[in-house]
Amino acid sequence: MSDSFLELKNLKKSFAPGEAVLQGINLTIRQGEFVTLLGASGCGKTTTLRIIAGLEQPDSGSVWLEGQDVTALEPNQRDVNTVFQNYALFPHMNVADNIGYGLKIRKAPKAEIKKKVKEMLELVQLEGYEKRKPSELSGGQKQRVAIARALANNPRVLLLDEPLGALDLQLRRTMQLELKRLQKKLGITFIYITHDQEEAINMSDRIVVMNQGQFEQIGTPDEIYNHPKTSYVAAFVGNANILKGIVAEKNGHHIKVKLGDEVASIDTEEKVNVGENVTVALRGEHILLEENGDLHATVKEKNFAAGQLRVLLTLPNGDEVTASRFGMNADIQPGQQICWRFEPKDAVLVDRPKGGTN
Ligand code: ATP
After folding, report:
1. Residues with Cβ < 8 Å from 303, sequence gap 6 or more?
2. ipTM of the prediction
3. What is the reported pTM?
4. Any idea which architecture 239-350 has in CATH?
5. Which atom in ligand 1 lies closest to the alpha carbon of residue 213?
6. CATH superfamily entry for domain 6-235
7. Which of 13, 46, 86 to mutate to test the pocket of ligand 1 (most atoms within 8 A of CB)?
8. How far is the CA of 46 from the centre of ligand 1 (A)?
9. Cβ neighbours of 321 (radius 10 Å)
10. Mean pLDDT, rounded, for 232-240
11. For the residues of 323-345, what is the DSSP string, one character each?
12. What is the pLDDT of residue 169?
């Protein structure tokens, strides 16, 4: 399995002078990998995908597929297919004709098209639907047809631009599992776009977190979620609280950080010096509201979201943090003074200078 199946080399793109949509992105993808581009609206995800597909030309930089520079090739000259959020099915064609369309264009023999369509219908579990028109299908079924149509062309890479974006949450979850199963079974490289962090974590081998035309961090779901490198990644994936502090003491990997006038212990692999300003990412579920906590706060608000109690706390230095935990004591009331703490291993130093680990 080659490590550099698909490579993006220093891709730059702008649509208007001085407004860089891609600021020189680099990415190496392995054959059979499921890679997700995750980022807020407008960060350049679709533009990246369109350049890989050949639907858009970069201003500079190149796209390599299996050691070949494909940057100048037309979309139909590269073995790359795209599935869009809006399905883009041909409304006047039935399911079978939609799926077989690419093969027909390439003048494949009728018997081969028929066989492939049957195989694809089985793959996406739509046997018996071949004569239906897209208007007679549900959203999830339409999306399955769109995926089957793309896969019928035997692409080496499948690009999926928010393919589940139009589906309701329950169907979305089912389709996430189905897509992942399909991808593993076929061993095709998937490049998937979403702005849904949960979807990215559930499905991907690696996640690329994008921000304003740049890659903030590339890593496995575990690396991205548990070891975010930047405050942007920590806040975007898992809504971490971001706190400013100063290193007060250092003893190997154990440091004490002043958060205002209070001091918290943190375990870190980062190279830090006493007196240094640091940025700390702390997830809401790691905030423990306990009487023996040595940090203090006033409860500002509390609410329930997604079955979880969320408590907004104001710290003595005026900073705010949100604690969110299942089973947290619901008796807490706004205005109440409380004590809190976190485990030293649960706080992460982010926005570090490059090459700064011990
Ligand atoms: P979303 O999640 O909303 O789809 P995205 O991350 O996919 O966003 P892109 O579609 O890549 O973002 O767009 C990035 C920026 O480039 C946006 O500011 C967008 O307005 C701009 N842009 C994209 N395509 C064009 C175009 N053809 N002409 C001009 N500007 C464009």
Report:
1. 309, 310
2. 0.95
3. 0.89
4. Beta Barrel (2.40)
5. 14
6. P-loop containing nucleotide triphosphate hydrolases (3.40.50.300)
7. 46
8. 7
9. 22
10. 92
11. EEETT--TT--TT-EEEEB--GG
12. 84
